[in-house]
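Lab channel / #folding
Pinned by the channel admin:
"Please post every new chain as: sequence first, then the structure tokens as a reply. Keep commentary short and put observations after the output so the thread stays searchable."

First post following the new format, from NK:
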Amino acid sequence: SSSSSSSRFCLGKCYTSFSTSKAATVAATTRRSLLSSASPFSATSSFASFPRSNAGETVHSSNESGRRRKRYSIQANAGTPREECMVTTPIYYVNDKPHIGHVYTSTVADIYARYKRLQNMDVFFLTGTDEHGLKVEQSAEKRQIPPQALADENSLVFQEVMKANEISFDDFIRTTDERHTTQVQAFVEKLLKSGDVYLGKFEGWYDEGQEEYYTETKAKECNYESPISGKPMVRMEEENYYFKLSKYESKVKELLATSDSFLTPKERKNELLQRVNDGLNDVPISRTNFTWGIPMPGDEQHVIYVWIDALMNYITAIGMAKDGEAKQKYWPASMHVMAKEISWFHAVIWPAVLMALDLPLPMRVHAHGFWIREGRKMSKSLGNFVDLTVLNKFSTHYGLDGFRYYLATEGPIGAQDANFASSRVQEVYGTDLVNTFGNSTSRTTAMCVKYFDGVLPEKSDDTSKIFKGYDWKSICEKEAAEAVRAYENLELNKATQAAMRIITKVDLFITETEPFRMAKDPNEQENLGAVLYQCLEALRISACILEPILPNKIKEMHAGLPLYANVSDSMGKRLVWGGLKPGTTVSKLALFPRLDPLDENGEIMKEEAQAPATSNKPAKKSKTKVEKVYSPETQAKIDAQGALIRSMKESGKTNDDAEVAEAVKILKELKARNKR
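Reply from TO:
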């Protein structure tokens, strides 16, 4: 489950010039098929031509007047025409049960889709299930039920998981759907007629778990064991239909070598490029040792191999082999999201197939890392798998948004794997959501209710009132721009950090300006109103940054602190300073309750389990330890200073930095001199 260089292939709606004649030839060939009045699938005549833009103009390269991929900023215009954006997860294999990997990949794609919708883009978010293959057939035989019955049963489980986790997909495709099977056969027939698929004989090694073939050389490099499961490979000799992957070796190699944006993270690109440099062999696209699959056109003794069947879901879901299908406008996909073990299929084989079909390539393939536990890969044999039962316990306990936040901030979004630990879930929830976001929102809205009866006073938005060190408009503009860049790059943790830096500054601002002191002085009422306005406006912008990750909590917050004038307002409009207006009614908010920690199985930890282990030896008599207690005002200062230090360290600074050392010194002084 799964900044561009100046020279690259046609990656979706973003076309750029080519620096080499070889690349130019590829672009010209693809472009000719798009510009011709005939279908790019003229060999089979029944296929639809590539969709045209809303203006009726065909898609061109970047030096022509076609649609381009846009770079979004917080100043995006709401009135501009909506651009299409297709986001996908891999389709999940029905012979497997949903687990943290499926939920994580879907959550990442969901966050990106929600972010793009907030950019006022026309988003099509696709997910689904992969339902053919030998393993499904064997599992159905063991249960003595038809393969279709097994597929129906398990596909429904995945659909329910998606809905339970509020994954906002627009379409759920199944590879047993007729709309899929008929188009797959049409695409394969096109490849047969073009000579890109031919009948041949395979002799080599087969990874049954991944349903992948290996040559003798590659199998030997893997010690004849699956690189994914570690199980022994099986020696095979079989007649198959093959796809001429070797024909596209130079084009795929150049695609990976010249584009920094097609395959991310960059470490994944380097891994695959090294493998491609070793040479590409033609790959089988049919099997004869099982029947549960789509028959090969003209040769029903062969079943279309599961990987090509599955990959084509991205174009069958939008009817690319049909005439007049409106959803064709979404191709090419903007983002394929998956786990790293299927990056080879998506970043090498899939582009080659699309080249053979004369279709543009997806803009981006993002292959994230794995979840691990205690430094070891999750597996059923080790008993360390985070299955659906455990996941449900965590999302129920911390709330769906609370657990989504953990997945977004701590997940393996980049090249490295990520360790799942219940203690870390508790720490992230408590530090970021309870103590920082929740506490700051609660304090600030409570002060507005207490001092101004919950109504922002007149002139509180006076932009001339800038308190020393807190030019809030500039602060928020900088962090909002950073958050947008992070979302675009799929660096979800950096997006949340931008919001948390704003909130941390709000806490420090309250500590330094002391609004509770201003409230006692009638002459300070105007300044008090300005302080609270600036705090609430900064929190509003922080909330808008976090909305793709915390959709439910932000909706709840909007009910007590209006975050935008209209639900249709784009993120660009929402992130501009000045959204709150004097006279706005504000209610006291309590977004994130404090919760007991869970153990690794998702059970609430008992108090004795939370406490450090004690010795059986008799306790020695000692002086009574007096816990330090501070006034509410001082505790607020200590909390804000601690949050500031955490923010500094999250940005990469250490205790050796003068700024951090000074902040730590201030924290120690606060604690030392203010004990009650």
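NK: Residues 1-78, 619-627 have pLDDT under 50 and may be disordered.
TO: also worth noting, The radius of gyration is 28 Å.
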